[in-house]
């Protein structure tokens, strides 16, 4: 049976690196699994190298891990938390990653405030 859209998967590359992601249809008849730069670095592989891939369909729910300081911001802004919870896993992950990638404490703090404002304005991602 042909599948439309993305297919959630769990993959293991070279029997050592686990990955959760999606197979995507990229204007083709088949689904494609991209190998992220992060996974390539962990494997020590580059374009043209062979990689052993094991994958299964991922039927488990996906939940973004939220650090305590970000939970505190949501506790102070329950309307933003309700909107955040209604977003897709991908959009939630994008917001949390944006905050967690901040190198300085001040940047992290300002991004938390910006996140709440953007969510309340209806923005689905950064």
TrEMBL record:
SUPFAM superfamilies: AF2212/PG0164-like. InterPro entries: AF2212/PG0164-like_sf (IPR037079), DUF1905 (IPR015018). Pfam families: DUF1905 (PF08922), OmdA (PF13376). This is Uncharacterized protein YdeI (YjbR/CyaY-like superfamily). It comes from Chryseobacterium defluvii.
